[in-house]
Backbone:
């Protein structure tokens, strides 16, 4: 038997109904805020990701699904959406007009070769937002506020945003130098990978999961980003927090927060929920002012975030019972073969009138059909057999109180509408 691959899974009803609801809420939240939906391909040239996410990152070094196509080109299944959206914006010249804003959102699968566990899959889904064309701290605050609004709309009321600032290039250079100096005496104690990261990309030492590296990074004398922010970067960060205060959005200043992708500058943020493991964020994002230009576009201020839909749903399921699939309005039940064909045709008449109708394809026993109708939670059953055919009617059973009535063929739609309104 062929099974779904490790780290991938099927989304079945009624769970798919929950998915559709969350994605519909995302669409309406972001469309209302003036964002347009973008859909990019699930595979791209490998260089797109190595250049944007950073060569010395876990994603690029260990987690990408990279393969050669039949012409020997190196392609990669997208591990995240930001690089793809940036590529599409540059390719379609969406950012070329000076001062023009682009506000985009996306919903779709991403791929990372990680060790599968609860809330960590190899194919997972993200709901993401990207804002291009502004360096204003109000854009950072808008991204964070939108993320919080969306979480509230799907049923989270007590989320806290963890916030930090990486500052501008000058701030980051100063911070890297301070990190290097502080970590120098501990260099030999770091794990092998971090000894390499020390030279190549020292910030990545901070999100290493190896206990000895974590211990070293938790030392009191470790420098913080806040100590190295340039005055302009500190002012930007303060303005983001003031804007969040204006909206009453709670946040936690987390000086040790870093993100696993290299393109960030200034504000970075994550949202966690107590129902998930401490290390697992529901979503995260930040500003990435250098990325568009580094990928060949015009200098463009940009900020965005992405939410992991699987993790969001895990946390939601921990809070609320899953919703039931909405039952049909009517189940048609056929007592013989001719009735089966009639139910097919009347079923479509009712569907065309906007009612949700189930009809049988095969003449199963009436008992079996009634049992299935009862299990589906349908409020009304319409029974058709020889007697009903001769009288030009359907026998209607109210599944709640068990009462029966006759409904004439000619007035079927009107009568069923009235009954359904009453139920
Ligand atoms: P990220 O933090 O790598 O950021 O991923 C965002 C979210 O995707 C995570 O918080 C998590 O919920 C979910 N996620 C990541 N990996 C997995 C996995 N293996 N299984 C399940 N869920 C996962 C980004 O991807 C950035 N592109 C976000 C961004 C957009 N920054 C600016 N704009």
Residues:
């Amino acid at each position: 038997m062929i099974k779904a691959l490790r780290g991938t899974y099927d989304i079945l009803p009624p769970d798919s109904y929950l998915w559709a609801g969350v994605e519909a809420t995302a669409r309406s939240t972001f469309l209302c805020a003036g964002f347009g939906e973008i859909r990019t391909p699930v595979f791209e040239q490998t260089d797109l990701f190595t250049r944007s996410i950073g060569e010395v990152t876990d994603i690029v070094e260990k987690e990408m699904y990279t393969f050669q196509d039949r012409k020997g080109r190196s392609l990669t299944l997208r591990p995240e959406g930001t690089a793809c959206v940036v590529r599409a914006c540059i390719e379609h010249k969406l950012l070329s007009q000076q001062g023009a804003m682009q506000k985009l959102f996306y919903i779709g699968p991403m791929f990372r070769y990680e060790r599968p566990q609860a809330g960590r899959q190899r194919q997972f889904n993200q709901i993401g937002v990207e804002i291009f064309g502004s360096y204003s701290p109000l854009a950072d605050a808008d991204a964070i506020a939108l993320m919080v609004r969306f979480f509230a709309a799907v049923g989270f009321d007590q989320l806290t945003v963890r916030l930090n600032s990486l500052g501008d290039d000058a701030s980051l250079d100063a911070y890297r130098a301070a990190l290097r100096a502080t970590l120098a005496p501990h260099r030999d104690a770091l794990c092998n990978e971090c000894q390499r990261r020390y030279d190549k990309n020292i910030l990545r030492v901070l999100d290493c999961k190896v206990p000895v590296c974590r211990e070293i990074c938790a030392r009191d004398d470790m420098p913080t980003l806040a100590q190295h922010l340039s005055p302009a970067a500190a002012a930007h960060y303060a303005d983001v927090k003031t804007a969040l205060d204006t909206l009453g959005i709670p946040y936690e200043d987390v000086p040790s927060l870093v993100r696993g992708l290299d393109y960030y500058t200034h504000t970075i943020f994550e949202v966690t929920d107590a129902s998930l493991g401490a290390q697992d964020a529901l979503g995260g994002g930040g500003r990435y002012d250098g990325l568009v230009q580094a990928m060949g576009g015009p200098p463009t201020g940009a900020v965005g975030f992405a939410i992991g839909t699987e993790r969001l749903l895990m946390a939601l399921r921990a809070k609320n019972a899953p919703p039931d699939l909405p039952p049909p309005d009517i189940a048609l039940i056929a007592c013989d073969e001719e009735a089966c064909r009639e139910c097919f045709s009347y079923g479509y008449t009712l569907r065309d009138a906007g009612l949700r109708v189930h009809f049988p394809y095969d003449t199963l026993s009436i008992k079996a059909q009634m049992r299935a109708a009862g299990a589906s939670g349908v409020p009304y059953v319409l029974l058709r057999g020889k007697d009903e055919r001769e009288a030009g009617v359907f026998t209607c059973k109210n599944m709640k109180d068990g009462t029966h009535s006759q409904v004439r063929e000619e007035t079927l739609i009107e009568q069923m509408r009235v009954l359904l309104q009453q139920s």
The first strand starts at residue 36 and ends at 37. The longest helix spans residues 15-32. The pocket of histidyl-adenosine monophosphate is lined by residues 80-82, 112, 114, 119-121, 124, 126, 128, 130, 260-261, 281-286, 304-306, 308, 310-311 (CB under 6 Å).
